[in-house]
User: Fold this.
Amino acid sequence: MGVQELKSFIGNNTGILRNLSFRDSKLIIDGCNLYHNLYLYFKLDQIHGGEYEAFEDLLTQFFTNLRHCDIQPYVVIDGGADHTDKALETLKARKKDKIKRANELFKGREGTCFPLLIKNVFIQTVHKLKVPFVQCVEEADWEIAALANQWDCPVLSNNRDFYIFNIKRGILPTGKFWWRNVKVNRGTNKKYILTKHFTVERLCASFNHMNKDLLAIFACILGNDYMNLQKIIHLRWEAYSVRSGDFSHIDGLLTWLSKFPGPEAAIDGVLKLMTDNEEKVTVREALFKGIKEYKLTKGSLAQYFLSKTPATCTGPLRALPTWTLKHLHEGKIGSFIVDILALKRVMLNPQVEDFQQPSSNETSRPIRQVVYGLVLLGELQTEDKLVAAAKASTGTDKCYVTEYDRQGLTLTSSEVEAIETKVKEGLRLETLWKEPHPLRLQILLETLDVSSVRGIPLHLQLQVFATRYWLVNAKPQPNLLHLWGLLLGMVYGRLNTLARTQIDRQLKRKGRGKIYLDHEVAYLYSQWQSCLRWSLCLNQLLCRPLPEPECARLYFGTLVHQAVREFERGITPESLLATCSKAEKLFGQLRNAVLSLLDEDVVSRISTGHMSKAFDKTQSDKCMNQSEDELSSCFEHLMNEDNDDYDEVTGKKRKGKDHKTNTLECSTIRTRHKAKARNAKHPSKKSERRCFD
Assistant:
């Protein structure tokens, strides 16, 4: 729900929003609203795929300043869509708008498109900072409001719904929460944050002290996500307004409602203004349902924050196994699992890319198909054999997930088959977490079409494997320059300030100014982000057989785009990294690790005349023939290059890391069919691999 323009209406009415010096209190934070607002307010890059590290720095500064003011934050974010699917049309309308806005950015105009990994970075950062956090199973608004009332504290959010909920301690609007400018009370010497403060009491007081429960009816009439009552109730509320201007319809409806003692009388008043009896029944039902939606009772989050015990789910969500529910609340698994299991539906996010090309999400579809299979197909294995055989004979034994994605600028839906992994038949979601680690790892490797992890340190494997998958499957074919750009970004994420400054100077990077957007580069890197994101999702679903990489260190949008431009002019990665020998070695190791996973024909395809610069086969073979201990030690040495760096947050010198605690695990695993495929007598064919069907 939520009434359009309500925030502007409140901001234009003096007395409803008041100044507050905020400190020494619990604060319930609408996490999704926070990270979207921070990213937009500070104008971080959207056009080139994201500025994840700058975003992480902002979050770190935000929560650090709260701590300085003795504010105890509790972050709550949304989960999956409502399992009743009552807001489907609203979700589709929003997705269409996102496609339109992303295309505007692509064309160089004003638009909005949040980077694909922004939620991953947010969750990782919150965990790193040890901020209390929960991801709800479904939408979080009601639970946030209920928790605020239980703990008698305000909510930080710009979400319009919170202006309707009767939250006793009110709302601190995110856009008017001046957290960067921490102030000090001269009398007490204690720090505080100046903010605007909203309460339902003050809003209702400005309309003849109207009954607070009437706000639910107000929201249902003007902002219902589930039914457009404005199309049924053909009334011009401006006629009841005592003020003229842009918000007269809001003022008029509130003025009209204020004459009723309570909700039931107001509903009767609405129905008297209507003539169609059938529409009266529809409106009455919708209004009573809306009142119930906004009625606050005791929620489940207070108990979760105390005991970490998830609440019991009802309806279709009871199918969520206990382990997935726990991981979902902790943010260790994405909300995609709720949409797949309860709705058999996934809404894919658009990126800034060439909208004349197919969606970048098509590249990662085979990964999603395995995800769908792990979530959905287990129950089919438990059916009676005769029933299963009958389904197989009629072709009804298959399971599909409806994917909403773009085709051009149009939102379309398609039925995508859930695919069972070949590693082991009969896997069930309920017991997936009990499967041995080697088997879960093998599923991940088979899906990403990786036959061996020999010589690649454990903490680098997932990003390397996702990059290898992208190189093989992206269309048009990426070349070595695009790979160099990605790997340079990964190395850049490990460098100290001095080394970064030298690279920035050579790339002529000046802050976050306007940078030319190469359409093909943007499209290819959008495909890479989609491949990485769904590799992360699969890894989470498999209970992380591989460590999850720090997403904020993996991709630097403007840097990789500029780097590709310089590479096209003849500059080499080695020349950019020449001032930091350890970084140059790390780049070479990452490059060789990726290329060693590729068949020779793929290496030939991506070389495009740059083979001599990018890949010395003799050097690579020598590298790959090193013992695993030698190569692991090499990577460990390179990744500890910042032992003498300075921490940019504290300004203090970082301490060297204990060698023992940084020992890297390297392993060699070959999936059965891939090992066979690598044999000269059994050439590899994509058409024979089910995950590519």
Observations:
- The chain is about 45% helix and 10% strand.
- The two ends are 40 Å apart (CA to CA).
